[in-house]
Amino acid sequence: MDWHLSLVAMFTTILALMAIGMPVAVAFLTINLLGTLYFMGGLNGIDQLIANSTTSITNFSLVPVPLFLVMGELLFHTGLAMRVFDALDKCFGGIKGRLSYMTVVGGTVFATLSGSSMANTAMLGSTLMPDMVKRGYKPHMIMGPIVATGGLAMIIPPSSLAVLLGSIGRIDVGALLIAGMIPGLLLALMFILVIRTQITLDPASAPGHPDVRASVPEMIKAVTFDVLPMGLVIFAVVGLILLGWATPSESAAFGVLAVAFLAALYRKLTIEAITKSLRGALIVSTLMLTIIIGSTTFSQILAFSGASSGLIMWSSGFDLNAYTMLAILFLTLVFLGMFMDQLSIMMLTLPVFMPLVSLYGFDQVWFGVVMLLALELSLATPPFGLLLFVMVGVSPKGTTIGNVAWAALPYILCTLALIVILAIFPELATWLPQIMR
Amino acid sequence: MSLPKLYSGLITGLAVTGALSFVFMTFAIVINVILRNTGQHPIQATTALIEYALLFATMAGAPWLARQGGHIAITSFTNFLPPVMRTALGRIVLVTSVAILALLSWRATLLTTQMWERGTYDIRSIAIPSWVLYAFLAAGFGLMALEFFRLLIRGDIYSGESAQH
Amino acid sequence: AQAEEILKAVSAFPKPLAFTQSFLGYVDLVNERGKGIVQIQHIGGPEVFPSNQQVAAVERGIVDIHYGPAGYHLGSMPEADAWLGSTITAAEGRKNGGFALMEKAFQDRLGVKLMAHIDSGIKFHIYTLKEPQKKADGSVDLTGKRLRTSPVYKSFFEALDAIPVSAPVPDIYTGLERSVFDGAGWPIVAIQDLSWDKFLKYRVDPGFLQTDLSIVMSPSKWESLSPEAQKILQDAAIEYEQKSYDNFQAIIAATDTKVQEDGMTIVRLEGQAANDYLDKAYEAVWSRMKASNSPLYDELKKAYYQR
Ligand code: NA
Ligand code: NA
């Protein structure tokens, strides 16, 4: 089959399967089976499909996904998260939408310790969502910031995706990691502006909380007993990486242990809390990882069919000025990102894109950052956006992917704006790696 | 105990084991990091076992999640359909899901026995017999198929809307 | 004449990496000579099939050719250790009958036809963050050092009393930056690809073992080819074994110079100390194959191990 046809057939079929309400995980398995029968042929193809599936999630880099979920669930079910929010209430008084801001700030902090966007979103979602709903935040004020900030984990170092991007694209890994720092923080700043604007436009979207701050002694007490101990959790996750005790993939386990320890100190580590936390973590982890099993193989079949390379060659085959070419490369990434996983996208596109990068004289590290942003974006775009799925998984009954995608839209626009800014001021990405040499 | 009860117990039991494997992951990592940083030899099996636990927990949780209606499905479009059509479509979806999952489970079972007979190993931080991962998939897909089949014979459709927290 | 036959090939590594580029040299050679007869089309790397499932895809006839490390299949083919533990070049192995034994192993254990052992002669080295101490006898003291390892040389690191640590590749950069590991094992080439040389400032010489990269083909596809096409593939394979070896010798020399210019110090073991070090490395590999009860053990060791 011609690559155009393969591409259209594969994409329309998976879209149709999702649209008729087939569970997303099964929809991927179905399209994979059909694709396999067509492109690889017969039972041999199906056997290969299963063999490929055995490797898709048995990967140590995915460990933070379930463990950060457990950590977030524990923070919520033991009431530790609630305590922190209450304490912050006392200190900040009536700043509207404070928890939305806190999502961005907290999420950015966690982005500096987590290399995985999925894990970051899962953790933020399972910790913050329930309390924010209780406090009367409108759903978009909760889900938008969480999905957006979750994605920061792969821009701000450490980032396992940046490491893979560097190695496959033969870009200096160290420089690429550092280069993500300023754009990542800039993005976080833009997110805060979005929240500020949304609250101005719709004051009812976030609760006002008590208008008056608590007295100073009360504030000190609240911070000492409810906020400062959280430092232990931060230390367990970031501190151990910085000290060189644990790798980023391992540190999540210490986060779980630290939360459990604190909860035990507060005498909140009940069997019920543990059971609920494990149950919640199992739900979200299972729904994500079953989808990843299917989507990984989907990407592989697309690659095998020649559809993805066809698209990439076609999109990169134009003779255009640098900015238009950049836009086309970017759109290709976003399009692939609608259906495919990040690693596959990188392996497919980099062999074609990197020569173009040198041909057009783009800075490699700078392009790496743009590419990371595009990949981050693809996690939050429907129909296949893992962060959207995570968010649905941790949200109250009845939340749809559409709801989450709408909530994320303003933040997606921020990422697009940042890419334009990076095109105009490449120094935002290239300056830091240069001075740190 | 009756067969349906036993079966329900199996589904729940698997989910519990899946959730417990998160506890195992946590402690296994913590122990290994402590051993490594105190100059002792970490347990070599840990990395491989944790990688396997990721698939195990997923396959053990998947049938239970299907029972809970927790697997994500996009209902934005089907919700606009008249109830008769929605039901019809829902049943087509279920039949297809059962067929696909059963087919995958069957092939995965055959591969499990093939790997067993060949006696090959999957070499990671330790060597584990190659059939194990295939067996996880065979069981997980098979039980998922059964769960969707139960919905089908009960006359229900899958909505995925009871994903709850 | 028959129509031009197009063979689909996959590689264990992504296309931009040096090893895959070397394989593409073989592809080019075949395509140049096989115009109108046989052509190889590289359809991709791990994005098409996971690296360790590619040989199975060839066995199943889904793709025709695979390029990648034989050591990925140690669990099904313990004979892969013969190449890892080899002390001769691939071309010598072909001459002395070693290659024929490996052909048999690939056929019996993996169900694929072995075409070539390319990119041979690239050794592995231990790299460390801090200068490793030497003992009185001149041997290197790695006792208690945490070395990131692959399954292939894990037992060697244990024999050195080091602590082998397994960690996924994306974690290694941060791990080295923060000294989670004291060092790592890696081939002499490609150490700069992931910028690890920023942290790994010491390299222990001599290198040990060597690369085990194979080109394999689907047996049924091979049978279906015309003798003419077979000859082109076969001749190119033999020729490329030597050519890729020579290419990599040049790359090794260039890398060696480059890393030293960039500030890497070589910790060289001499005489008996070097000998003992290598004994441990090769012993770990060959005894592993022996323990697997491979019927080819004696013949393979005789052919490939000549220290
Ligand atoms: Na990060
Ligand atoms: Na997407």
Describe this structure in words.
The complex is a heterotrimer of chains A (437), B (165) and C (307). Helix content of chain A is 77%, strand content 0%. Chain A is built from 22 helices and no strands. In chain A, helix 4 runs parallel beside helix 7 (117-134), helix 10 (173-179) packs across helix 22 (427-435) and helix 16 (307-316) packs parallel to helix 18 (342-359). The termini of chain A are far apart. Chain B has 165 residues and is mainly alpha-helical. Chain B has helices at residues 3-37, 45-68, 83-118, 131-154; strands at 121-123, 127-129. Chain B has a two-stranded antiparallel sheet with strand order 1-2. In chain B, strand 1 and strand 2 (127-129) form a beta hairpin. The model of chain B has no long low-confidence stretch (mean pLDDT 92). In chain C, strand 8, helix 6 and strand 9 form a beta-alpha-beta unit. The chains are: A mainly alpha (437), B mainly alpha (165), C alpha/beta (307). Chains in contact: A-B, A-C, B-C. At the A-B interface, helix 2, helix 3, helix 4, helix 14 and helix 15 of A face helix 1, helix 2, helix 3 and helix 4 of B. The complex binds sodium ion (2 copies). One sodium ion is lined by residues 111-112, 114-115, 153, 156-159 of chain A. Chain B: Part of the tripartite ATP-independent periplasmic (TRAP) transport system. Chain B: This is TRAP transporter small permease protein. Chain B: Keywords: Cell inner membrane, Cell membrane, Membrane, Transmembrane, Transmembrane helix, Transport.
What's the gyration radius of chain C in Å?
20 Å
pLDDT averaged over residues of chain C: 94
Helix content class of chain C: 40-55%
Poorly predicted regions of chain A are none
- Low-confidence stretches of chain C at least 5 residues in length (pLDDT < 50)? none
β-strand percent of chain C reads 15-25%
Largest interface here, residues on each chain?
A-B, 64 and 64 residues
In whole angstroms, the N-to-C terminal distance of chain C is: 50 Å
Percentage of residues in strands of chain A: under 5%
Give helix % range of chain A: over 70%
* Major sheet summary line of chain C: 6 strands, mixed
User: From the alpha-carbon coordinates, what is the Rg of chain A to the nearest angstrom?
Assistant: 22 Å
What is the element string of chain A, with H for helices and E for strands?
HHHHHHHHHHHHHHHHHHHHHH
Bound molecules: sodium ion
Pattern of helices and strands of chain C: EHEHEHHHEEEEEHEHEEEHHEHH
Extended strand count of chain C = 13
How would the global form of chain C be characterised? Answer: globular
Mean pLDDT of chain A: 86
Q: Tell me the major beta sheet of chain A.
A: none
| End-to-end Cα distance of chain A | 49 Å
Oligomer kind: heterotrimer
